[in-house]
Design a protein that fits this description.
alpha/beta, Nucleoside Triphosphate Pyrophosphohydrolase, seven-stranded mixed β-sheet, about 15% helix
C-alpha cells in the first residue's frame, strides 16, 4: 500500500534577547552527530504536533513554554543514509519568548552543549534544513520549502 504522509516533526524556537536556543547533539548520535539543532522530537501516538512540541520542550530543556505555531517547512534534503536519495519531511516550527525561565540540559547523553545564538550568527555545524528554515522564515510566512537535494 502506498502511504502519502511524510514524517512530521515539531521544532521549537525559544527566543531570549533576540537570540534562539540551540542544542549540540552528541558526537555518537545516530543522526547529525555533533551538529547544532533546535529542541525537537518525535510525535507520539495520539499527540498533535503542538502537544509534542510542548512535551519535548519540557523534556529536553526544562521549559514549560506557551508555544505558538510560527511556520511549517517542507524539507527535501539528501538522505543521511544515502546522499543520492532524497529525504522528505514536514516540520512544524513553534516559538515562544523565554523571559523568566533558564533552560537546563535534561538529556546530557543526547546533547553535549547548548547556547543562545542570533540567526545572523548561527554556529557551525548546524543541521542544514534547520539553518535554511531559520534564515528564510519571515513573520508573515506560514509555509516555506527547503529543497537542498536538487
Amino acid at each position: 500500500m502506498l502511504h502519502s504522509l511524510k514524517p512530521t516533526f515539531p521544532q521549537i524556537i525559544l527566543r531570549k534577547d533576540d537570540k534562539i536556543l540551540l542544542l549540540r547533539r552528541s558526537e555518537t548520535a545516530k543522526v547529525f552527530g555533533g551538529y547544532w539543532h533546535l529542541p525537537t522530537g518525535k510525535i507520539d501516538d495520539g499527540e498533535s504536533p503542538k502537544q509534542a512540541a510542548v512535551r519535548e520542550c519540557l523534556e529536553e530543556v526544562g521549559i514549560n513554554a506557551d508555544l505558538n505555531l510560527e511556520f511549517v517547512c517542507y524539507n527535501r534534503v539528501p538522505s543521511i543514509h544515502n546522499p543520492q536519495e532524497a529525504w522528505e519531511d514536514v516540520c512544524f516550527y513553534f516559538g515562544a519568548a523565554v523571559r523568566d525561565q533558564n533552560p537546563i540540559n535534561n538529556e546530557p547523553d543526547k546533547f553535549v552543549e547548548m547556547g543562545w545564538f542570533s540567526v545572523s550568527n548561527l554556529p557551525i555545524p548546524i543541521i542544514p534544513h534547520v539553518k535554511y528554515a531559520l534564515e528564510n522564515s519571515t513573520s508573515d510566512q506560514v509555509y516555506i520549502e527547503c529543497n537542498l537535494f536538487d
